[in-house]
Every structure is written in structure tokens, then in C-alpha cells.
Amino acid sequence: MKKYKRNSVLISSLLFLLFLLNLSNAFSQYRSRNVRYNSDYSINQRVPYNTSSSKSRFHSDYEKTIRDLRVIGKVGNVFLSETILPIIEGVNAIKNRNKNNRYDYDINSSITVMVVPRIPNEENLCELSRSNKYSEAVDILSETLSDEKEIRVKNFFSATRSLKRKNLCSDQFEVTFDRLRKEFPANYYLIFEPNFNTSPTGNYVNISISIIDSKGVELEYFSSKSNKMASTNIALLSKQAFKKISSDVVDLMQSPDQAYAEIENEQINTNDDNNKDVKTNAILLNSDVDTNIPKTNRVNQDAVAVIIGNRSYQHGDTPDVDYAIHDSRIMKQYLIDMLGYREGNIIYVEDATQAKFNSIFGNEKDYKAQLFNYVKPGKSDVFIYYSGHGAPNPETNEGFFVPVDTDPSLIQYNGYSLKTFYTNLGNVPYRKLTVVIDACFSGASEGGMLLKNISPIFIKTENKILKDENAMVFTSASSEQVSSWYPEQNHSLFTYYFLKGLRGEADSDRNRKLSLLEMKDYLETNITYMARRLNNREQTPEIIGVLSKSFVE
To answer: In angstroms, what CA-CA distances link 363 with 310, 387, 428?
Structure first.
């Protein structure tokens, strides 16, 4: 019996050595032909990935070795079963782990980065298909970054699969990203969005990127356009656009001291507790209205808001609105921190299309859209903010919001009518309504003309909202004027002073009750003066409502 047992040990040892040799040979062949970056790290030199030859050959050799060992391990010998089969299960566990990771190798690096696509809130970050335009761009940006020294790229797809298994995914992008950041720590996250555009001279992609650090603070915002080409390959165009700014992105991640210094300059007067809140909740910290946002202990449980920031326009001749995203994100933070809105009750959209406007506010035939369904009759305060382009129809003098997929010269067909907007709002059973529109409807903009060869137009708007004592409307300029930017503060001029007034600067009698009259006087005084000083132009904000009513208490 002892001799038999010794022979079994010898046989099993030889078989195991044979298995290791075969497996090592298969791995060597596979690795020599395929060098890529793994789920947590990157390497700096890669050769083409050949799925049809080396990969299939490796799996064939591997499966054959496993089958042979499994047969031997079950040949009625207790010793062999107890030694060979556990080895097989262990190897299978390693195989399954590697199968979940798209990339295979590891190096020592000092900076970890994850590329995350910024998708609309109604879509789920964990459900992106491999053919999705965002997914293809994730690969392109990840591979480009992996060429840089001292940078390792964490696999976004492995991370979201893990979140999905743990039921941590949400249709709210901010919620899912926050969970992603906690579950998969990295030094930086590149939040990006590619926008495909067409023009008479070719197609191009406008890519926007925010650099978020491990604490959730956005250090910088970049944007870049690819060259105009005949190609419709979004991934290819995204790569070209990213190449133009990749060195700046990498430099910031490798030397972030200046970015943090700018943030610290805005937080000198903030105590330690507030510092913690600001750094984890703020999105951009490069204006004095972005920090030290007053906090309220009151929760406006039933309040509903719509915030739309249209920055990157798809039509080739339409200029971007540089500060629209920044304006919108900070406005959202004010609603949450200062006015007590619940984040789940805020419909937040960046770069809204015409279809998105229709889905939120309804169309001329049906007003019962997303906003209507969010409101509790007679209980919900409603706050609406829009930053982006507006444009007129020269033939009718009717104003339109300009969705990002709109050709302004055809605004009457693919814009979103102010008339429809106000008519549908009139059917929403709100308790109190506040509308804030940071856009001009003259056909011109700070970034350039939307409509060529037109004279200033006075927009005609008649609706019951403007006469409702429970409604107040703010617009950044009169219809024939241009809304100015305030580059020094990285906001539009109107939104900057609106936020400044909201936080208390407009409270002239210091009774901690901000009336509409106080806000009106503050905005008109400051915006009119600064528009002349900065741009030598007239800009007069328009405020409609019962001036004696309280705006903020």
C-alpha cells in the first residue's frame, strides 16, 4: 500500500509538472503576441492584438491540459482526486478572474487614472454596450493615456461590472460616479463627453473633459475639436481631438500644485469643516461664488427643479457657450445647499437636444411630460434654469431655445419655442414658479453670430405666466441685447451676479429676507455697469413678478 501511495505521489507530481510546462508555454506564446494594459495598470509599449491566432491557440492548449488532468484526477484514486482537482479549481478561478479583466499586465506607476464617460442622467452608466460611442471613446482615451510614463489606467468596464453585481448602479450619473469613486479609488478621473458634429466642410468631434481628483473636486475643464474629416468614426475623431490637449491633461495630473493653489486661494476664509464640505461637493472651484455656499437646514421636500446647460453645439457654425456647464452645475449646488432642494427632484441635463426639451416640458400638443409628472399639485415649488443659446424667428419675432442639435437658421423647425415653454408651464400645478433664463434671443451671442445678416429683433412673448402673482421670471438681457460673459469669474455675467445676489449680496436691508425688488435692483445695477465696463455694451436684465414678494427667506 505504501509503495502504491509513493507511486501515486510520483505520478501526480510528474503530471503536475507537465501541466505547468504546458500552461507556461501557452502563456508565453500568448504574451509575446499580445501586450495590452490591464484592469488596474498600463504599460508603455504594445503590439497589435491578434485575437484570431495566439488567443485562440492559448485557450485551445489550456482547455486540453485541463481536460486531461480532470480525467486523471477522477480515476478512482483518493490521493489523486485530493491533489489534482483542487489545483484545477484554483487555475479555473484565476482564469475566470482574468476573463473579467480586459487587459493582462501590471507595472509599477505613480498615478492611477480612470476614464469615465459623461452620459445623460436617464441612461445607466453600468449598461453601456461595447458598441456605444462612449465605450469606444473610453478605449481610445485609455490607450492614449497608457502611452504616458508614470500613468496607469484603471479599467472602467470592469469597475462598472462590479458595481452592477453589487446593485450599486443608478440612472443618476452623479450617484453612480460617486459610488464608482468610492469602490475604485484613483488619483484622477477623466469625465469626458464626445459630441459628433457635421458641417458642409466635414465631420468633427468636440470633446469635453473634466479632471476630477480622488476627493471629487474638479481641477480643470478642457475642450477640444478634431479636424474636419469625411470620417464618421467617432472613436477616431475623439482620439484626434484628445491628442491636441493630452499633454496639458497629463501635465496637470503630474503637477497639480497650481490647480490646488487656485482652489486654496478661494478657501482662505473657510473653516476646517466647511473646507471638507466644499472639497467633496464642489464641481469647479474657480470663482468666489463657487465656494462657501450658504447651507440651510430646511429641506424643501416637494420642490422640483429643471437645470439645463447647453455648451457644445453640434452645428458647425454655432459657437459654443463656454460657461454654460459651469453655470448649471453651480446653480444646482445652490439649489441643494441653500434652498433645500432634494437632488432626486432636480432634472439636470447638459447639452440638451430638441427631443430632451420635449421630454421635459412637453410639446405644443401635450404638456404632461417629465416636469408635469414630478410636481405635486399645490405643494411643489418649481425652479427652472437655462444657460445656452436663444434665437429668434425673424419672420414672426418669436423666440426659441436652441437645443444642441439645432441649426439656428431653421429654428422654427428644430428649436424649442418660448411660446410652447410658457404655455406648458402654465398647465403645471406648481405652488410657486421661478424661471431663470441666461440666454439672449437677438441672433447674436458673446461667442459669435447665430444668424447672419439680421437686425436686432424685439421678441414678442404673451402668456399667463407673466401675469401670475405666484410666478417670477428672470432673463439675462432684453430681447435685442447680447448676454455677456465674465471670464475672470468663469461664469456668464448674469449668472455670476444672480448667484452673488442669492447668497446675500442683494439683501440691502440685511433682514435675511430677500425680496424680488431687492434682487431686481441688485441685478440691474451690477449687470448694467459691468457689461459697459467689460464689453462697452448695454445689457439690462429683465425681472417680472410681484416685486414685494419674498424671493428667498
So the answer is: 19, 20, 13
DSSP 8-class letter at 227: P
Strands 491-492 vs 485-486: parallel, antiparallel or unpaired: antiparallel
Buried-state track 466-477, b at ≥16 Cβ within 10 A, e below 16: eebeebbbbbbb
- CA gap 357, 367 in Å, rounded: 11
β-bridge mates for residue 392, sequence order: 399
Long-range contacts of residues 497-502, Cβ cutoff 8 Å, at least 24 apart? 497/522, 497/523, 497/526, 497/527, 497/530, 498/436, 498/438, 498/474, 498/523, 499/289, 499/330, 499/331, 499/334, 500/288, 500/289, 500/526, 502/334, 502/338, 502/552
Backbone φ, ψ for residue 13 (5° rounding): -65, -40
Which residue type is seen at 156? F
Joined grid coordinates for residue 308: 439645463
| One pLDDT digit (tens) per residue for the chain, 553 residues | 555 555 666 666 666 666 666 656 655 554 444 433 333 333 333 333 333 444 444 455 555 555 555 555 544 444 444 455 555 555 555 444 444 443 333 444 478 999 988 776 567 788 875 556 677 778 888 888 887 777 888 988 888 888 888 888 887 777 888 888 889 999 999 988 777 777 677 788 878 888 888 888 878 877 778 888 888 887 788 888 888 888 888 888 888 877 676 666 544 443 444 443 333 333 444 688 988 889 888 889 999 999 999 998 887 778 888 889 999 999 999 999 999 999 889 999 999 999 999 999 999 999 999 999 999 999 999 999 999 988 888 788 788 999 998 888 888 888 999 999 999 999 999 999 999 999 888 665 555 555 544 444 445 566 778 788 899 999 998 767 888 888 888 899 999 999 999 998 998 888 888 999 999 999 999 999 999 998 888 888 999 998 888 877 6
Dist CA 346 CA 303 (whole Å): 9
How far is 150 from 268, CA to CA, in rounded Å? 32
State the pTM of this model.
0.54
Report yes or no: 349 and 120 within 8 Å, Cβ to Cβ: yes
Retrieve residue 474's grid coordinates: 428672470
CA-nearest of 473, 399, 385, 406 to 441 is: 399
What are residue 390's DSSP bridge partners?
Answer: 401
